Amino acid sequence: MTTQGTDRRKGLAFAGAVVVLAAVGVYLTMSPSSGGADRTETVAEQAPAAVASTQAPAPAPSQVAVTPGTFDVYRYLPLSRSELGAAADLARRFTASYGTFEYSEDPAAFATRLNAFSTAEFGAQLTRAMTDPAVVQQNKADRVVSTGSAQVVSIRDMTANTVVFVVGSVRHVIARSGEKDQNDQYAVTVIKAAADWRVYDMEPAGAGQDGDTSP
Prior knowledge:
Layout: H1 2-30, H2 32-53, H3 81-98, E1 101-102, H4 107-115, H5 120-130, H6 133-142, E2 145-158, E3 162-175, E4 178-193, E5 196-204
Antiparallel strand pairs: 1-2, 2-3, 3-4, 4-5
Helix pairs in contact: 4-5
């Protein structure tokens, strides 16, 4: 009886093992599609991270100053191109006229010519200087004939109503004392007068004078 019981138990154990193996086989047969999809999805989800990790980092901004091709300096100035050009032209023409005179000309007429460029206050100063008896007598005695030309060299200061230009002046002088070219630089201050410009001040540029900018 012992032998038969043992044989029966072995038979039942073997049958149970067969059932388990069959169940595992069925599970493995039915599950690969879902398991494969899960593994594929996992790889796909990880792929972008792998690609991103191989991309080069963005370059750091350049520290070298480069002028843009579309840079318009007049957008940052208190005056437009036409306003600044008109002011510069007035300063140039005034300086050229200041250096153009001759001993035979009426000093009052010379002063009047300069006054056409100037404010009333500065024009009065010019009249006093041009008609000074000592200056007039010296020019007549030396028979001075001066022809002036001028060119704007730089802008020293600027606001919406005032510009100080550094103007280079060349005077070609013919006189009894000899013929020469005299070179000077002036700080010429021009101010807005309604829709026009007027010369407000003129000082030697190299004498520590910046030009008067507070009319």
